[in-house]
Amino acid sequence: MKKRSLLLLAICLALLLPCLAACGKTTPSGTPTTVTDEKRSELPTEDNVTETEEPIDPSLRYDVPSDLRFPNDEDGNPQKVHVLQRKDQTGVTNEMEVAKDLENPTKVQSAIYSRQEYIMEKLNVEFDYQYESGAATNTDKAGFQQRMRNINSSGVTDPWIVSSMIYFLPPLMAEDTNILYDLYTLNPNRTNYMDFDKVWWNSSVKEQVELNGKLYFAVSEANISVYNRMTVMLVNLTLADELLKDSDGNAYDFRQMVYDGKWDMTTFLSMLRQVGDGDLENPNSSYWGLTVRNDATTIDGFLLASGVRITQRDSNGKPTADGVFNTEWNKDRNEKIKALYNSNGAVLKGAKAVDVENPFVQGKAVFHANLMLAVAQENIRGMSDSFALLPLPKYSEVQDDYRVSSHNEFNALAILNCTKNTDIASAVLEMMSYESYQNVRPALFEDTYALRSLQTLENRTMFYYILDHSYIDFAQVFGDIFGLPLDYMREAVRYNKSVVDTFDARNEKTVTRLETFVKKLWGEE
Questions:
Q1: Against a cut of 0.90, is the pTM above it?
Q2: C-alpha 370: how far from its chain's center?
Q3: pLDDT tens-digit profile of 465-481?
């Protein structure tokens, strides 16, 4: 996220050190453990910073009043807050709810359970969890969207918070901007406790999804799926030291190459040529240069990392694809990624994760691209060779920076417009995001990454560097409503189709549909 600074990096590392000291400890079975108030005091709030202390970074300060507590409802019970979430949470821990009687909970699950219990006690609210099908299929997407419509039109006025796959939400905006609240304004007669300048809100997502000064959904530290869905690169350092040499005959320092801005596609492809191109006479031909899944999880990552430009904002902040999408700039990058997947004998692509993970784990491949979640799996944890975590390479050394994208099957937060007491909903989301930043994220690193992929300080430092280069593209989120341009760029790679024909065939639909959507949101229809 762009707002992270060296100060934040230091705080994150400080939070992680106790986790690393706890390596080898097991999580007890039964009710998830709770997080103490001592840990909650580690970040500055309005109550623990005095006027005599040095000024703090405002983005780190928690501003919800410490004595905030909502009155009981008309029946004398805590205020009920409904949470609609996906039934299918494949690949991620349920971000909103963890059962009290869960056996052998992970540290992440314990932290989420503790967070929700703390919020209920602190704010005097009671969570009511509701589920709807919401896997990554058109059918389940339609069902989840219809559930939101039904709730919004049912006449209920209780607070309704939605945790939805991010790309489920824009079609509702295109259809009716009164289904979701503008999170910037909410109910003008009440207090909005959410502060999107804080580090626990994802600034990269906010910059992409804010339209005409409105924000209908957002991503925060409560949405740990945005980390798990990041597309990254692993390099087997043991194998790389044996097979790859720079122009001076020395082994590569991959991490320093990243920090110096020199980790690009040209360098990467030259490394693959050193491993071999399928020529059996090459002594290294028994090794793969890269193993990679042949699907959206990595193809989209490579395309976005290369700096493709699908839309841009005009001087009024309006997104447009006209003269942006169908360009030589994009075609060149699409062609290079297509060639990587289809015309490189050093690349092993597979439809199933296991088909491309196993060769890397077994020391038969130098590089492996996958989602961050896969990086934390037991098979990679058990590798005998040492490895490094890297972002995907830039297109060229002159590209301004690395783009580490999250595959768009991650969750975002919204508030349904039927909600009358929006101050409750906003206070809950702000506290949930802050508590996740302070307690859930450190548990995620310890439970999922620190004990598995971040055994070394170098890998931990690179991990935070990758987070600092988080990138979400407008087309990932809003593509459903203006012709799925990124999807068609991906299909050219996946099925080895003509890149030129792909752009020519989709350009008019991409441009005109986006124009129609923008006119609606700007009230120009």
A1: no
A2: 14
A3: 998 899 999 999 999 99
